[in-house]
Amino acid sequence: MDPSGLTTDAAGCTHCTWRNAAPEYLHYHDHEWGVPVADDIQLYEKICLEGFQAGMAWITILRKRESFRQAFEGFDFRRVAQYGEADIERLMNDPGIVRNRAKVVSTINNARRACELVDEIGSLARWLWAFEPAEQERPAVVDMAYWTANPTSLASVRLSKALKKRGWTFVGPTTMYALMQAMGMVNDHLEGCVCRQRIEALRNHFKRP
Q1: Which of 40, 142, 191, 196 is most exposed, with the fewest beta carbons within 10 Å of its own?
Q2: Is 58 annotated in the active site?
Q3: Is 29 annotated as a binding residue?
Q4: What is the pLDDT of residue 17?
Q5: 120 catalytically annotated
Q6: CA 143 to chain centroid
Q7: Residue 161: inside a domain, yes or no?
Q8: Which residues bind Zn(2+) (predicted)?
């Protein structure tokens, strides 16, 4: 393994080392992580799953993602916003998801906040993408040492504060930086990873909402 956090596979392709930590990471790293997203339901799902991940390993959430989608009706936030106590109890008895009451309640709360934001702004995506960091805020070189030392960013702090002001929960700066990585707002595939240039090309051609 390269000290920068890279590893080379049998075909000679170099990837971020974390890709090899579990079979589920292969597709996630290569085809999803960092790809720009503008769909409101997908973005709400990512916010919720990053919130559930707080204090846990991401692989745990990734392995349960389909169960989460079934439990929360595809993360249709207008449906989830209507959930009441009976739904909370149903979810707390669902072995397919993380049964943390505070996080379940947060998911319902955030659905209601998402509805408010969409009704006001017209799009969750439009509001979120306004927090994309300026070019000068992004590191010139991305390696594992930078990542480890910087689990948040100025932009993720701004996003976290803005969401909390609107009543969202489980949206701390570290969680929001993970969201920004996952939704393609930043490209944190390491320098040398074969995905980095492809993701940057997708970002360059992505039409911001």
Answers
A1: 191
A2: yes
A3: yes
A4: 92
A5: no
A6: 20
A7: yes
A8: 16, 29, 189, 193
Total residues found in the chain within this entry:
209
Structural Rg of the chain based on CA atoms: 17
Considering the candidates 28, 73, 191, 200, report the single residue annotated as catalytic: 28
Question: Is position 84 within any domain?
Answer: yes
Model pLDDT, residue 135: 79
Catalytic residue among 25, 50, 83, 168: 50
**Could you tell me the CATH number of the domain that includes residue 57?**
1.10.340.30
> Is 50 among the catalytic positions?
yes
Q: Is residue 1 part of a domain?
A: no
193 annotated to bind ligand: yes
Measuring CA to CA, which residue among 103, 127, 112, 104 is closest to residue 40?
127
Backbone angles phi and psi of 16, in degrees to 5? -60, 135
Q: Which long-range contacts (CB under 8 A, 24 or more apart) does 160-166 make?
A: 162/131, 163/113, 166/113, 166/116, 166/117
Give me the long-range contacts of 131-137 (CB less than 8 A, separation at least 24): 131/155, 131/158, 131/159, 131/162, 131/180, 131/185, 132/185, 132/186, 132/208, 133/180, 133/185, 133/186
Q: Which domain holds residue 156?
A: 6-205
**Is 48 a known ligand-binding residue?**
no
Tell me the mean pLDDT per 10 residues along the chain, length 209: 75 92 96 97 98 95 98 98 98 98 98 98 98 80 64 92 98 96 94 94 97
Counting the structural domains of the chain, the total is 1
Determine if residue 189 is labeled as part of a ligand binding site. yes
What integer pLDDT is reported at residue 72 of this predicted model?
98
